[in-house]
Amino acid sequence: MRTVAAVIASFEPGPELVKSVEAVVGQVESVYVVDDGSPSLNGPTADRVRAHLDACASLGAHVLGTPMNSGIGHALNRGVRAALASGADAILTLDQDSVIDDDYVASVTVHLDLAASVGIDDALASPATINGEVAPFWFAHQGLTLAFEPLQSGLVITRSVFEKAGLFEEGLFIDCVDTEFYLRARAHGAHALIVPGTDIRHRLGRPARWTPPRPVRKLLRGRPAGAAIEFSEDAPFRHYYIARNRLALYRRYGGAEKLWVTASVLKDSFVRGRAMLIGSERVSRTYFTVAGVRAAVRGETGRIPSRTVLRGERLRPRRVTTPEARVGAERAAPELVSVIIPVRDGVDVIDTQLDALGAQTYQRPFEVIIADNGSRDGLREHIEHHPLRERLSLAWVDASARGGGSFARNAGAHAAAGDFYAFCDGDDRVYPQWLEHMTAAAMRYDAVGGAVETHSLNSADAQSWRDMLPPETPYEFPGFLPVSPTCNFGVWADMFAKVNGFDVEYDRGAEDSDFAIRVQLAGGVLGHAPQALVAYRLRDTLPGIWSQSVMCGEGDAQLYSDYRAYGLPRRPWYGTVDVVLYLVLRNPLLPTAITRVPTGRWLFHAGNLVGRIKGSIRHRAYYV
């Protein structure tokens, strides 16, 4: 009597994992569920993911985990080692979304015994149908049908195969892990068998439809006019792994498996070519395929590089235009909000902001922390004796050890007791419903950027010097990621800790964009709350607007230096030409009646160009 153990690899599991365990647990000696480092287990939805894993444990499964996402091969190997150590004679491997028939394992063991009776002891057994469709097969051996490149899910592998061929290859990470094992097992004399009468329900990609254009419809005989062609397609990034790993296998097994290589090339060219020609997100798929081919030529293995993912994502068409559609995991309302305000020599303006915070309509608890970045105007005494001290739970924090807003905000966050941080500046003024709208949006996002208006606190001249986005439009780097200024920004404390706060090396601006980018690279979602409004104070002197614009330019160049490998695009050359022509033709030395440009506006554009040049030199990255 064979002892069979099941190994199920999971990643961000849902209810389908529990269904898979329910279907198999009564058919095998033991079940091992191996979670491949699901990020959600360390995030706000940890309870939801943990509940599914706990449900599997309550059914009798052994639930194992890996500290990080290391690929399906790594997860399977951990389960296989545990199963073999427990004395299993054969291992059934499954995906988390696969469900087998009630008599699946019994049918397989009978077939393995039949194979052993004709001298086939080293075997891999696979289902006859997948979702009711006949599984690929080719020749017969000793009267038994052989499978052609069987799927890992539903595969039963005898102990002797593992002992002779080894475990799954972890360097492939996702795709072709099963194919490589199948080819390696064949090289060691094993046979992959089709088990008659068995079926497995398994999700194969996602459905896609293509309606042929009129000239093509005439070529598709037998199809009604306008009828769509339906097929399945993988996520675009999978093309990277498929192209890379397939080429690696062709190189490795091409000499011994000429027939398999020929059939595989024809099949894969059709399936992948169809997806790139008539599937969704075709440009992105083509990019990932080319990147995978390049990686194969270089001999690269492991996880797809982050920069490749980001560049491929840039090529995907945008399906939504509203930030409300980019929603992260649901969270409960914050228990306590910490409003953090970095200030340096702001005693003459801080009361406007504190009065506005005292007028908030927000009904839940919040505290206000003043992070003093080296003030010499008596700010500490002013805060410690402020009339709103009790009402606002007002606290002064020493943040003078290093200059810069990043250090001050980090110091404020270090002293904060809240589970959500809301950042604003000392010389601005938040609207009465600012916290109410900010926290409402935060329940759907990991970080939130608010909106600004410039008409309340600024003269008409100062407003004419800078163009500001309307409240409903979020900030972003075109072709890259959305960002948000820290004069109106909120982030959950756990996400703030996950990305290690603000980078103090950003001492010339752009620290807010850097922070927002890192949140998203860490898997967080940045939202936009247009009703969380702040009245923003502009620079109202020519030296002030000049210094601010130079600083912004330097910060943008630093951002490009740090994130060009992740897909942040360089400024187009024609944009630089346009700025130069603008500065020459709108020179303030010419009469304003001719240029029709305020001096402050000209200085802002000139300073920004100078800053980008300085930043490009400083960070050795051309961003002019």
TrEMBL record:
Transferase listed as a keyword: yes
Transmembrane region(s): none
Pfam families in alphabetical order: Glycos_transf_2 (PF00535)
Domain of life: Bacteria
Region forming the signal peptide: none
Sample GO molecular function, one term: transferase activity
Residue ranges occupied by any Glycosyltransferase 2-like domain in the UniProt entry: 7-108, 338-460
Alphabetized UniProt keyword annotations: Transferase
Stated name of the protein: Glycosyltransferase
